[in-house]
Amino acid sequence: MRKIRVGIEGNGTVRIKLKKAGKAERSGVTEAGKTLPSPQTFSAPDVPTAGSRGFSLSYPLLGQMEIRVESVFRPKEPDVEVVYALTGFGRSVDHLHKFSSNEVVAHATPEMISYTAEKMVEHIRAERAEMPNLIVHVHSHPLGAPALSDVDKEAMPKVAATIQTIVPGATVLFGVHAIGREERRPRELPERVSLNKVRWSSITRLHEVAFFDEHAEPVEVRIDG
Ligand SMILES: [Zn+2]
After folding, report:
1. Is the pTM of this model over 0.85?
2. What's 148's domain CATH number?
3. What is the CA(139)–ligand 1 centre distance, in A?
4. pLDDT digits (tens, 9 = 90+) for 214-223
5. Residue 13 lies in a domain
């Protein structure tokens, strides 16, 4: 059966898209043999995507990233990982989506991470009027480095494939958000310290965030004020 999808573009034109069933329904049988529910597909708008040419984010968004990661810390409790997503259109992100920790897990098995990526897309869909075509999956490394672990590297192609099954044509990138130990320190504004990495300090934590594509290649990031 063919699905008919009707979307209203930003310029007011109505787009009708015929979509073959099956692409979405390929979906997941995990290695554990569990069948995952078929995700609904969403059309991303036809805007050029970031790809390997990188993307930009703003100081206000970096401020939200700082709050997202620092807000989970509690006195006298171990620092915990968080997952969030940055989304946008074309080559810039302009929105942060936070996820509840019981729905999205950072360092479980790659199959579990891929499964929870579907939940992420549901959140994104619910929070944005139009499905973005640039989705950056970010997770934190408390007291760690902004570098990919082996589990991260194994999971990323599966997460990208899962998201792209639900949002065909979307660019999916990844970020690792490292946070330092709590200590009183001077605030330092975000700056790009290498092609794919930004660094700043809040008054209590050093933050370093590095961005990669699904194959663990560095992706250029720019701060656009
Ligand atoms: Zn990691």
Report:
1. no
2. 3.40.140
3. 6
4. 999 999 999 9
5. no
